[in-house]
Amino acid sequence: MSTNNMAHRICFEDNHLCLVYKNSGEPVQGDSSGDMALVDTFKNYIKQRDAKPGAVFCGLVHRIDRPVSGVLILAKTSKALSRLSQAFQKREVIKEYLAIVPRRTYLKHNCYVII
Predict the structure, then answer these.
(1) What's the CA gap between 88 and 78, in Å, rounded?
(2) Edge-to-edge, what's the strand order for the sheet holding 70-75?
(3) How far is Cα 7 from Cα 3, in angstroms, rounded to an integer?
(4) pLDDT tens sequence across 1-47
(5) Is 112:105 a contact under the CB 8 Å cutoff?
(6) Does domain 3-114 match CATH 3.40.50.970?
(7) Which contacts of 45-53 are long-range, i.e. CB under 8 A and separated by 24 or more positions?
(8) Which of 8, 12, 96, 110 has its CA 20 to 30 A from that of 70?
(9) Per-residue pLDDT reduced to its tens digit, 57-79
């Protein structure tokens, strides 16, 4: 994947972390397919955008399965990676999932059921 559209996929960015939209079918990290991973695309984008002479740090805080689209948290520093990883381990992060289904649903036991 080209770094050209990465700017449009960044939902939030500061000095410590970046929230990036991951497309369905895109690997988060390298795998045996050889497809360009989101983490590598992001590193290349930051290297070009900020004209960084050395390596770009990009810590993977969590993963999203390849068939799924959504927002991914990437740490831009090792300190941010450590703190964010700890927050996930302690279950301090609230995750929300949204599914688009072709039929009507109803709520049963705090879970939507397709009818």
Answers:
(1) 15
(2) 10-13, 17-22, 70-75, 59-60
(3) 8
(4) 556 689 999 999 999 999 999 999 999 998 888 888 999 999 999 99
(5) yes
(6) no
(7) 45/3, 45/6, 45/7, 46/76, 48/3, 49/7
(8) 110
(9) 999 999 999 998 999 999 999 99
Tokens representing 44 are 């290349």
99 pLDDT tier (thresholds 50, 70, 90): confident
In DSSP terms, which residues pair with 106 in a beta bridge?
113
pTM exceeds 0.85 = no
Q: Tokens in use for 74?
A: 């990437």
Q: Which residue has the tokens 């369905």?
A: 24
Write the single-letter amino acid at 88. F
Closest alpha carbon to 76 in 19, 6, 29, 15: 15
The 10 Å Cβ neighbour count of residue 94 is 5
Domain ranges of the chain: 3-114
Active-site residue (options: 31, 35, 50, 65): 65
